[in-house]
């Protein structure tokens, strides 16, 4: 017994929604769960540009008041935020251009963000002898959970493999 394709009414085997042509067309679109990483990339560009600007402002406005250790930590944050911003912009172009390099680049973005924020929290706590702030842990936890979800998804998902092929 056979069914008809949802889009074009061609006869297809039972248990399948689309004919091969329609399936290729449908899976090449950014839909379903891929909407969430798309939103995340755009939000990270906004957030990282703001963080870069604020960190640069602190470094410039308060440079005379900063101790050498604090200057080094703020400089680390400035460079990290800026590099993550650049990586986010590049990832965004790959994502919306449906480029084949996107899965590896997105995984790099997720793991780089996790590593940067975890090291930042550690350095701040270690060198400034301050308690770890819950906001800092929230950011690390966000990257950790996001990485645990999206890294495997981008590795094994058929939709990812069929969407990002150019």
Automatic annotation (TrEMBL):
The chain crosses the membrane at residues 33-53, 73-96, 108-128, 140-160. It holds the Pfam family DUF2569. Keywords: Membrane, Transmembrane, Transmembrane helix. The keyword Membrane applies. It comes from the Bacteria. InterPro entries: DUF2569. This is DUF2569 domain-containing protein. It comes from Izhakiella australiensis.
């Amino acid at each position: 017994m056979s069914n008809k394709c949802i889009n074009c009414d061609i006869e297809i085997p039972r248990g399948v929604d689309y004919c091969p042509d329609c399936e290729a067309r449908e899976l090449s679109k950014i839909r379903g769960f891929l909407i969430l990483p798309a939103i995340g990339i755009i939000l990270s560009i906004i957030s990282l540009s703001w963080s870069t600007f604020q960190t640069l402002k602190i470094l410039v406005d308060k440079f005379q008041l900063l101790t050498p250790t604090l200057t080094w930590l703020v400089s680390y944050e400035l460079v990290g935020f800026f590099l993550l911003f650049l990586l986010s912009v590049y990832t965004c172009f790959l994502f919306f251009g449906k480029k084949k390099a996107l899965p590896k680049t997105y995984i790099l973005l997720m793991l780089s963000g996790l590593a940067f924020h975890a090291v930042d929290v550690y350095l701040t706590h270690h060198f400034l002898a301050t308690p770890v702030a819950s906001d800092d842990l929230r950011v690390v936890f966000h990257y950790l959970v996001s990485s645990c979800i999206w890294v495997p998804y981008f590795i094994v998902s058929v939709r990812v493999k069929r969407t990002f092929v150019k």
